[in-house]
Amino acid sequence: MHANDPLDVTRRSLIAGGVATAAVVSTPLGAQAASAPAQRAPAATLPVSLKINGKTRKIDVDPRTTLLDALREHLDLTGTKKGCDHGQCGACTVIVEGRRINSCLTLAVMHDGDSVTTIEGLGQPGNLHPMQAAFVTHDGYQCGYCTPGQICSAVATLGEIKDGIPSHVTADLAAGIAPTEDEIRERMSGNICRCAAYSNIVTAIRDVAGERA
């Protein structure tokens, strides 16, 4: 081909033309994508009614909100602690419909209408629940972080044992059914105390169990 032939296209001119075309086409889109902030649709909320420590509380929560976060973040009941957030330490234990649960493993919307008891609902300074008083008497805590969950679990544990005693059993016989140390340790095994105050915790629970019997 002649040098002035319009069809005479060199590799260099072809590559240069391709790069220029790509730059012209891609630059506005790339700039627009970089400058546009990521937008996410707001999560829908659902109304939830909970009977907390004897009082009905109504809140609107993201359906993904755990009962633990609903208590702490929406209802300002910070006595219930967030420990592992995986249901392994028991620090978040509360009593729902008479049964203890790990509040970090359940959603608030699943308990609409349920009765929930937290550490704040068991007793107050000057009017302690017997289990709270026993923990104080027997030094059932050190740092105290796990203590609300330990106490809620202990109260529910004695409730579980009491429910297991047939109604025809007399008080005298029931005294002989008070939980042993091994039974208490087994029933409380889901509550971890990193300070290792276990022996004092067991003593406090046995003290209250004997009083109830």
TrEMBL record:
GO terms for molecular function: carboxylate reductase activity. It is an enzyme of class 1 (oxidoreductase). Its EC number is 1.2.99.6. It comes from the Bacteria. Residues 46-122 form the 2Fe-2S ferredoxin-type domain. It holds the Pfam family Fer2. Keywords: Iron, Metal-binding, Oxidoreductase. NCBIfam families: PRK11433.1. This is Aldehyde dehydrogenase iron-sulfur subunit PaoA. It comes from Sphingomonas arantia.
